[in-house]
Amino acid sequence: MMRHTRLFLVAFTALSLAGCFGGAKVPATLLTLTSTAPAPAEVARASAPGEALTIDVPVVSKELATTRVPATVGSTAVAYIKDLMWVESPDRLFQDLLQETVIRTTNRVVLDPRQSALDPGLKLTGTLTRFGYDSGEGMVVVRYDGALSTAGGTRVETRRFEAKVPADGTAGTVGPALNQAANQVATQVAGWVGG
User: What are the residues whose beta carbons fall under 8 Å from the beta carbon of 96, sequence distance 6 or more?
Assistant: First the structure.
């Protein structure tokens, strides 16, 4: 009886995970982004009014609004890398990476959008326009168009950030290359908003 219960739980868990990922077969491991910036021993900061930074979830196109990793094929076709899926949608993973990189590499007080009422100071929004593998170039490409505004929108700055890292189109190379390229872009953004 106990054995049947365990088998049922394993099967139920597998079905639940498949449901979370749109019914697709879930790979043995899922991809995430991790900051490569050195972590400070401790983080304790204060900011003057209007100086805290809120980082929003970036806007993404439909091909990126999924847990699958896209590969552009030619100028008009999109496929997805076999056996490679995100643990969460890339827009949220990239937001988390941006927040962590800015915290680790600048002296800014960084707020989650749910905390922005504490200080509606600087706000970073943006669009993640590329976040996958380009088969024509043999590279992963991460492109982020950022917009930095002050409270009330009295000043707005925009800037494009991009990084490319070689990969061969397989899950084994695309995953690490995307993490590397995303970190390069996050470091560039942190340098821009660092103040």
Answer: 33
Q: Which of 80, 65, 36, 192 is nearest to 127 (CA)?
A: 65
Model confidence pLDDT, tens digit, residues 83-140:
999 999 999 999 999 999 999 999 898 988 887 777 778 999 999 999 999 999 999 9
Measured N-to-C along each axis, helices 90-105 and 171-193 cross at an angle, to the nearest 10 degrees, of 50
Nearest 5 degrees, angle CA 132-CA 138-CA 143?
35
Q: Using an 8 Å Cβ cutoff, are 79 and 141 in contact?
A: no
Model confidence, pTM: 0.83
What gap in Å lies between CA 116 and CA 64, rounded to an integer? 26
AA identity, residue 31: L
pLDDT at position 21 over 50:
no
What the block records as the tokens of 166 is 């070689």
- Residue keyed to tokens 């609004």: 65
Centroid of chain to Cα 88: 9
